[in-house]
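Board notes (copied after class):
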Amino acid sequence: MRKLGFCLFVLLASAANAATIEMKVYGLVCGFCAQGIEKTLRKNPATADVVVSLEHKLVAIETREGQDISDADLTKALADSGYDVKGISRTQRSLAEIRAELKQGHSDGKK
């Protein structure tokens, strides 16, 4: 029942939230990098939330309802901070799903 409740929560959160932008970013080497990226991306008014995974070279942004951030703006913001964006995709996965996947990867003993 607990798992069903979580799945329902994730589905409802996905339906209520705007799109998620997932980026493959190279040059992430420490927690300071992650904090800097989060701070940079949160300055954009279209950003609702940010997840950074150094291990997976992943930066995910949840945009505010009805808003978007162009690939060019994302690439420029990260390149200006010294990072190399290798790919950008828009998905309907919520940041809660991404966080759960990242956490699951850590609990499986993956590094």
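Comment from the instructor: Residues 4-17 have pLDDT under 50 and may be disordered. Helices lie at 2-16, 31-42, 71-80, 95-107.
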